[in-house]
Design goal:
The chain is α/β, with parallel strands linked by helices and 286 residues long. It is built from ten helices and nine strands. Helices cover 41% and strands 13% of the residues.
Length: 286
């Protein structure tokens, strides 16, 4: 039987309390609750300042389980694709400054126009843009020794956020691209996949460490908002502990990152209550 996870394995993705607290307050809250890991978002880092964020994280003694996020490669023209790669290079630099374990890659969906609406229905073409963008960014990331973690997202996001939707596709990209790239396993996005266990085992057979991050939350039934109605661990239908057993059997020994978008529930609660609940549910359900 899988043992309860130690409290030192818990990491907080800063999206979980972004509605209540600034990034500085989140870092302070992690220190107060003795949560040892953190994963900040780029917009929050930009608002606080990269140097100041890195200083506060170091002073609080926090490990950075990942930096959110790189990606969003598809674009309707070459200028847009070059701009995406340039922005991703900046994301790599930020991840290095923060001491992140990896840069999490939400790769992007169909190319969008200025109004944010897709201008193409060619999902195969979008996936090729992702592959090409990742390949170009990898040269820069390898030189900076910053691993890139492809996060396959649930198929409901294929059009707008990520056209890499399964562990199998992520593994295929890793096989093709080579060293320096791995996978972020987020249970919210992959729990439904009948090939999940086999693909986690496939990742374990890779020549170098492939599972770079492990994100946890829960899938509510019913879900009232596919983006902003994630559940706290234990409130939904995902067997999180089973998936944790698979990623640990595959060699993963990193942090368990709680990432919850919850406009109607957890974003409306006191931040201290949310962090305390994360700790309790991590013990019970992860």
């Amino acid at each position: 039987m899988l043992a309860q996870p130690g409290p030192d394995l818990l990491s907080l993705n800063t999206a979980t309390v972004r509605a209540q607290w600034t990034l500085a307050q989140i870092i302070e809250g992690c220190a107060k609750h003795q949560i040892r890991g953190i994963s900040p978002w780029r917009d929050q880092v930009a608002q606080l300042g990269l140097k100041e964020t890195a200083r506060l994280i170091r002073d609080a003694g926090l490990k950075v389980s990942g930096h959110c996020r790189g990606g969003m490669f598809p674009a309707p023209d070459r200028a847009g694709r070059l701009a995406a790669v340039a922005d991703n290079r900046r994301a790599v630099d930020e991840a290095v400054e923060l001491g992140a374990a990896c840069l999490v890659m939400v790769v992007g969906g169909l190319p969008k126009g200025p109004d944010g609406r897709p201008v193409s229905k060619d999902i195969a073409g979008a996936r090729q843009m992702v592959r090409d963008g990742m390949a170009e960014l990898l040269e820069y990331a390898r030189a900076s020794a910053m691993p890139l973690a492809i996060e396959p997202l649930h198929p409901m996001y294929a059009g707008d956020r990520a056209c890499v939707n399964t562990m199998e596709h992520a593994n295929d990209l890793c096989d093709e691209l080579g060293s320096g790239v791995g996978i972020a396993v987020d249970v919210y996005h992959v729990w439904w996949d009948p090939r999940l266990k086999a693909q986690i085992e496939r990742a374990a057979r890779a020549a170098e460490k492939r599972i770079l991050a492990f994100h946890v939350c829960d899938w509510l039934v019913p879900t009232i908002d596919l983006l902003n109605d994630r559940g706290m661990m234990g409130d939904g239908v995902i067997d999180i502990r089973l998936i944790r057993s698979w990623v640990e059997a595959a060699g993963y020994r990193g942090l368990h990152e709680v990432e919850i978008f919850s406009a109607a529930n957890w974003w409306k609660r006191n931040g201290d209550e949310v962090l305390a609940t994360c700790q309790e549910r991590h013990r019970q359900y992860v």
